[in-house]
Amino acid sequence: MKRIKLLIILLVLSLLVTGCVHINLTNKKNSSKGRIYNIVSLQDKGINMFNTLIPEDWKASISSEDLINSSHPFVEKVLITNKDESAKIYIVSQHSYVENAKYNEGVNQDYYTTYLHYMDSPTYSDFFMNSMYKGSTFVETKQIDKELLEQVDALQSIRVENAKNDAQLLQNSTSGITFQINNVGATTSKRIYQNGETYYEMTTAVFAVSSKLTSSLSSLLDSTATNWYMPYVIVYEANSKENYDKYYDDYNFIIQNSDFTMDYYYMIDYVSSAIANVVTATYAAKSKAALDAMNNYIDSNYTSTSAQSTNDKVMEMWDDVIKEVDSYKTEDGSYIKTSIHNDTVAQNGDEIYIGSKAGIPIGFNELEKTYN
Fold it and tell me: H or E stretch including 198?
């Protein structure tokens, strides 16, 4: 009984402090110099997961990988390359880990959790690069935009507040159990690596919240954990320093106009909740009375403070004036962001022209600038 209760409490606690959230990938100015871009929507698992705007000689693809994590059960991996693949952009969607001294690092099938010691953003960048690009070495750190740092801090505050609210709800529904939520903080880094002639720039952020569970029923239930997650990982790769510089503006522009869709966040939220319900249902036959409160909490409260509400708050924080970009409404009702230094945006089907008004190609219709 005690093991069953602990398993479910830890699972729910992992969900409530590692909810799905949205963060802008980057925040750069860029001038397109009168080029044609293609709107690309990438689908996986039957839904549109990722939208991007890429130069007509670039291409994009997406794939997914299932993880053993209740809060982020799968990740989407986007690869965007130029024509000769001398420059690549690799984007990994949000993923998470848990640090808990009670359990060995690695996959825990019972708790549907991957345990890994906590790392701040620079340390995680080194860890990621050593795992994905063996032989690469750190070169230097680049400065992070002030606006992105402010966004990260604000998002961390929202996450901590939501975690405290959810912990209080869970505590109220479970006798003999108390929870304490602490703000570990958020870190962001942009680091340059090199492997032979190949250059890499990696950008990521790491958010972390610690939780302490104390039981008056049994000290065996006591547990302290750090739930930490990355909202994204971005790696810009070029096969030479010359190409790194040559395609850097394209890289910035593509990232500025790339984002995981709200359908992606809803899918993560849905699968996470489904996992929690399946796990609790599995043990319910053995300990139904002890788990009814947990099931009720997951069903009625979890989604209220996860993807949708948090994403809306984050997106409302940003104003395009701060980022020095204009927003244009496309024919299908979506929006394109581009530097205020570009005169206009025009569209012909899935093709987008960004540049001067005088250079709009025949057949392209100029789009309306919007401040929505």
Answer: strand 198-215
